[in-house]
Design a protein that fits this description.
130 residues, 82% helix
Length: 130
């Protein structure tokens, strides 16, 4: 079975879209000190979802921009994991429930695979131009 970038993108999207539900339940915007609070949290997540879904469309349509969107989503997942890990270590964020912690670890695993696949595809396109 071949691991297709669209499959990994889809799985990573599901994980990243599940995370704001958990963050909303715990009111992370308070702990992170977002200036506009709940409204900024909601608007930023809607904008993020639109970009992620547009990127998935690019991947399905085999757009030349698809590897870039895939790499960005992979890096976003890694950044999400790092920010929350740092937040817990610094005492800014409370400890997570078992499900939330498992979700964060999955959010780290899927983007690493996705970023690797995207970089491999981008490298192949650069070599094809040479």
């Amino acid at each position: 079975m071949t691991l297709r970038p669209a499959d990994v993108y889809f799985a990573n999207t599901a994980l990243l879209m599940g995370h704001p539900v958990d963050s909303g339940m715990r009111r992370d915007w308070i702990e992170f000190g977002l200036p506009a609070g709940e409204q900024a949290f909601i608007v930023s997540n809607v904008v993020m979802f639109l970009i992620v879904l547009f990127g998935y469309h690019q991947l399905v349509e085999r757009s030349p921009y698809a590897p870039g969107f895939s790499l960005c989503l992979g890096l976003t997942g890694i950044l999400t994991f790092l920010l929350h890990g740092i937040g817990v270590q610094m005492g800014v964020l409370n400890r997570f429930t078992l499900v939330a912690e498992a979700l964060l670890w999955a959010i780290l695993a899927a983007p690493v695979v996705q970023a690797w696949l995207a970089m491999r595809e981008l490298r192949g396109k650069v070599e094809a131009v040479r």
